[in-house]
Task: inverse folding
């Protein structure tokens, strides 16, 4: 029953619209890194290993709104690609269609559950699963499914990302201090870097890379949208002046430093069959 409730929440609340995911993505424009997180991911792919493949077959599990593809458009269009984009909700798949219209090659768009990927087993050179595994009820089933989607090419790999326990922690700590009803559990907490480090080796040979990043946020509306994205879909009632109190903290830091600082830490796992 709990699993049914969780899946209903994801489909009907959190991801029934792209609004909340887009609010969470928008805050990353304040990065001080030279390249975006999505560009950094692609830079860690060994695409040259597939120089003899025409096309390179890619499965994107939990494609979201297509930011990875937009950020890497020029680089990816150098290759002949055959891509299947999947997500759990129609809203995400439809947004992906819009945002990948300029990606060349063969494209298919389908709804799919990471815990039920049987139709894709054994078919792909690259399986991408970026910040998705924590949505699965059974993480081992999800990881095993991702592995089974790879073909038998020794160069085939699965790319998996998540976040550290410390990722953007101050944003949540402020919320909890202001109101005890503020969510104490983050969606990512069931599959953080610290959990992934233990689980992934049970299924794959892996190489781990880490991106640490500082956000220097100067726009209150964007920060507020990020904070609200974890509250509104859950229907949580906060104190009436919650956002006013949060803004006071934001304004004090802006006055002192010129920006509101958020520290990110996100690992990338390049995973191959054992």
Result:
């Amino acid at each position: 029953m709990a699993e049914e409730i969780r899946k209903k929440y994801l489909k009907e609340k959190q991801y029934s619209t792209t609004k909340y995911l887009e609010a969470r993505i928008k805050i990353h424009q304040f990065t001080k890194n030279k390249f975006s997180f999505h560009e950094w991911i692609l830079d860690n792919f060994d695409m040259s290993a597939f120089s003899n493949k025409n096309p390179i077959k890619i499965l994107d599990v939990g494609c979201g709104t297509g930011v990875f593809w937009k950020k890497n458009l020029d680089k990816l269009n150098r290759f002949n690609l055959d891509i299947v984009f999947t997500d759990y909700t129609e809203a995400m798949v439809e947004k992906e269609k819009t945002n990948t219209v300029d990606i060349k090659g063969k494209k298919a768009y389908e709804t799919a559950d990471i815990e039920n990927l049987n139709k894709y087993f054994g078919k792909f050179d690259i399986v991408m699963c970026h910040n998705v595994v924590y949505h699965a009820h059974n993480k081992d089933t999800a990881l095993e499914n991702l592995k089974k989607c790879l073909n038998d090419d020794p160069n085939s790999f699965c790319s998996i990302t998540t976040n550290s326990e410390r990722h953007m922690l101050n944003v949540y700590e402020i919320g909890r201090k202001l109101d005890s009803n503020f969510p104490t559990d983050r969606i990512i907490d069931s599959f953080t870097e610290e959990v992934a480090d233990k689980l992934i080796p049970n299924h794959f040979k892996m190489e781990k890379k880490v991106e640490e990043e500082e956000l220097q946020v100067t726009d209150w509306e964007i920060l507020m949208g990020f904070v609200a994205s974890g509250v509104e879909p859950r229907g949580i009632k906060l104190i009436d002046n919650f956002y006013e109190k949060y803004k006071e903290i934001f304004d004090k830091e802006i006055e002192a430093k010129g920006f509101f600082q958020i520290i990110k830490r996100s690992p990338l796992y390049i995973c191959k069959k054992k």
